[in-house]
Amino acid sequence: MKFFSLSALCLLVGVSIICANPQDKDGGAKITKNEAEHIALKQHPRARVTAAKLETVQKVKVWSIEITEGEQRQTVLVNAMSGRIVPPPADHR
Predict the structure, then answer these.
(1) Which residues have a Cβ under 8 Å from the Cβ of 71 and sit 6 or more positions away?
(2) Which of 37, 43, 91, 92 is the most exposed place for a label (fewest CB within 10 A)?
(3) pLDDT tens readout for residues 18-50
C-alpha cells in the first residue's frame, strides 16, 4: 500500500512539473510580462506601465507595453523571445 501511495505521489509531482512549463503560460514567450515591462521602463525610467499584452506583429511575438510619461502615452514593443525592443510597424497603433 505504501508503494502504491508513493508511486502515485511521484507520478502526480512529475506531471505537475511538466505542466508547469512557464512558456505555456505566456503563449510560448521566453520573456515574461513582468520582464518586458522592466525592459520598457529601462528605456523610459520616469514612465509608468498602464497596460501590457502579448501580441503577434508581423509574425513575431511581442509584448505590447503601453506606458505613460506625464501627459504623453506611447507603446513600446518588446520581442517576447529575445527581450529586445523592436520598432513598431507603420500600421501599428
Answers:
(1) none
(2) 91
(3) 555 444 455 678 999 999 999 999 999 999 999
73: left (phi over 0), alpha (psi -120 to 50) or beta: beta
Spatial CA neighbour of 74 closest among 83, 65, 86: 65
The C-alpha cell that represents 28 in the structure block:
510560448
Residue 17 pLDDT > 60, yes or no? no
Alpha helices in the chain (DSSP H): 2-19, 22-25, 33-43
Pair 65, 75: CB distance under 8 Å: yes
What are the structural domains of the chain? 26-86 (3.10.450.40)
